[in-house]
Design brief:
Order of helices and strands: EHEHEHEHEEHEHEHH
Strand content: 15-25%
Shape: globular
Helix content: 25-40%
Structural class: alpha/beta
Number of strands: 8
Oligomer: single chain
Largest sheet: 8 strands, parallel
Length: 216
């Protein structure tokens, strides 16, 4: 089965964002990945809901919303209002993760949880049957264009084993430093979905870059 490709608009040209969304609409991308940063949980600020309201209106692809923020549960209504398909929160930002996952599902979205590079896969054992997807960070969150952390491939293998043993249906997504070379190894290790930012938007032909990732 071909991987789900979710280009990250964090790497898009914000001055011409409508053009980039139109390109994604006509491409083989499956989802549009939206990174929301607060400058607290991560050392950067991306964009807020007033901007994303227009992204949601323009996008013909399901929205894959990734909240790199403290207290993400407070913003479930705002993410739902975007019409998001997936709402993704960080394990490290949710002391009451099970509650937040339940609230996301009750709001009508697919709940997902992200783990940072230093967070072991084993920490997900008690939540793995409650989530639609797990996102493994291939870089430390907060900035685009970082180098892929090689241990991420092994974490994908560990997570795939955990999912199998638990009888979970959770998907595995990887975000950060993903390009064709890393993508091949991630898919072989068991990844279902790939987030790509620079690999798409810095390419001379972004639609071809998406097509190449889709056909790994």
């Amino acid at each position: 089965m071909k991987p789900i490709i979710s280009p990250s608009i964090l790497s898009a040209n914000f001055a011409y964002l409508a053009n980039d969304i139109e390109m994604l609409n006509s491409s083989e991308a499956d989802w549009v990945h939206i990174d929301i940063m607060d400058g607290v949980f991560v050392p950067n600020i991306s964009f807020g809901f007033p901007v994303l309201k227009y992204v949601a209106k323009l996008s013909e692809k399901p929205l894959d919303v990734h909240l790199m923020i403290v207290q993400p549960g407070k913003f479930i209504p705002e993410v739902k209002a975007l019409g998001a398909h997936v709402m993704n929160v960080h394990y490290e930002a949710c002391p009451h993760l099970h509650r937040v996952i339940q609230q996301i599902r009750e709001a009508g979205m697919q709940p997902a949880v992200t783990i940072n590079p230093a967070t072991p896969v084993a920490m997900l054992k008690d939540i793995i049957n409650d989530v639609y997807m797990v996102l493994i960070m291939g870089v430390n969150p907060g900035f685009g264009g970082q180098k892929f952390i090689e241990h991420t491939v092994e974490k994908v293998r560990e997570l795939r084993e955990l999912i199998t043993v638990a009888g979970s249906q959770a998907l595995i997504e990887v975000d950060g430093g993903v390009n064709l070379e890393a993508g091949v190894r991630l898919v072989e290790a068991g990844a279902d979905a790939l987030v790509a930012g620079n690999a798409v938007f810095s390419a001379s032909d972004p639609e071809e870059a998406i097509r190449a990732l889709k056909n790994l």
